[in-house]
Amino acid sequence: MVEVYRDIFGNEIKVGDEFDPTSDVVLYNGDTLELLRQIPDSLAELVVTSPPYNIGKPYEKKISLNDYLQQQEKVIEEAIRITKPEGSICWQVGNYVENGRIIPLDILLFPIFDKYGLKLRNRIVWHFGHGLHARKRFSGRYEVILWFTKTDNYIFNLDAVRVPQKYPNKKYYKGPKKGLLSGHPLGKNPSDVWEIPNVKSNHPEKTIHPAQFPVELVERLILALTNKGGWVVDPFIGVGTTAIAALLHNRKAAGADIVKEYIDIAKERIKLLLEGKLKIRPMGKPIYTPTRNRDNDRESNTLFDLYVKEESHAESI
Ligand SMILES: C[S@@+](CC[C@H](N)C(=O)[O-])C[C@H]1O[C@@H](n2cnc3c(N)ncnc32)[C@H](O)[C@@H]1O
């Protein structure tokens, strides 16, 4: 079935529950392989997802690591089939945790992509500020995005995702370019370390989903790795974050989730987006950084005390 929504400008947005190339968004409630098998070869400019991590979240049954990797391989095979030669695949993962020891999932998944000839372009570190407070190891504050391309001729729109330069007016001070701006006028490359707040309870995008993408994370990938009108597919779409980021930038989106409630929330979020009422943390909004109260660090008449004082002085100038 295809429902027709309208945005505040009166444009029609077709939202289907099975794959249909004339839809703008496809939200399939069921197993991801059932959706992926409906999608023709070489359709997607980007397949981006955060798969289940097999850590016992409410939506997943914990299985052996080998079974998990076999399941992931089937999805990855389909993802490769539906990706255009100039397209990309981004797999966002964290750690599998077993009796307090961590196993980084990207290390286990990389050989699967490699076996199928995909080319890793970046292993992006997504750094965020909130999470569980560990007691017997350092608290985990990053996950990764493995960005693969199918060929060497791939879409990469760097200008669309440049970020402000620290010193935008810096100029060459000698040589033939003396006096000209030394940085790119549109900003700098955002690098492979991305600091984007994760979706915890006080984040404006929070829904009931326990492991939601922030919209900004997917926006950057979509802007850099696809062109307007291109298809973005998320095999594990949850509450529809990938579809929201795609619609914001005039791309089409398809995704599946086995939990009907998540698909229903995804549809509600899309309706709010089209009405201009969805709360989204704006792309590039600066992150609040608390400053440390150094008074507690002081010890009297020690070398350390001297340096703490020096540092406080440096912060105040
Ligand atoms: C990490 S979450 C993805 C969240 C998503 N990025 C978002 O922003 O909402 C993984 C999702 O995969 C779904 N899932 C797990 N197994 C699935 C399967 N076999 N087919 C489709 N969806 C599945 C879960 O219900 C969960 O919502």
Chart the SSEs and their pairings.
Blueprint: E1 2-6, E2 12-16, E3 25-29, H1 32-36, E4 44-49, H2 65-82, E5 83-93, E6 95-98, E7 101-104, H3 105-115, E8 119-127, E9 142-149, E10 193-195, H4 215-225, E11 231-234, H5 241-248, E12 252-257, H6 260-274, H7 303-316
Parallel strand pairs: 2-3, 3-12, 4-5, 4-11, 8-10, 11-12
Antiparallel strand pairs: 1-2, 5-9, 6-7, 8-9
Helix pairs in contact: 2-3, 4-5, 5-6
Bound molecules: S-adenosylmethionine.
S-adenosylmethionine binds near residues 59, 213, 236, 239 and 262.
Question: Could you explain how this protein is built, in words?
Answer:
Helix content is 26%, strand content 22%. It is of the alpha/beta class and 317 residues long. The protein has 2 domains: 2-286, 3-Layer(aba) Sandwich (Rossmann fold), CATH 3.40.50.150; 293-317, no CATH class. A 10-stranded mixed β-sheet has the order 1-2-3-12-11-4-5-9-8-10, sandwiched between helices. It has a two-stranded antiparallel ribbon with strand order 6-7. Strand 11, helix 5 and strand 12 (252-257) form a beta-alpha-beta unit. Helix 2 (65-82) packs across helix 3 (105-115) and helix 4 crosses helix 5 (241-248). Bound molecules: S-adenosylmethionine. S-adenosylmethionine (SAM) binds at residues 31-32, 50, 52, 59-60, 209, 211-213, 236, 238-239, 241, 256-259, 262.
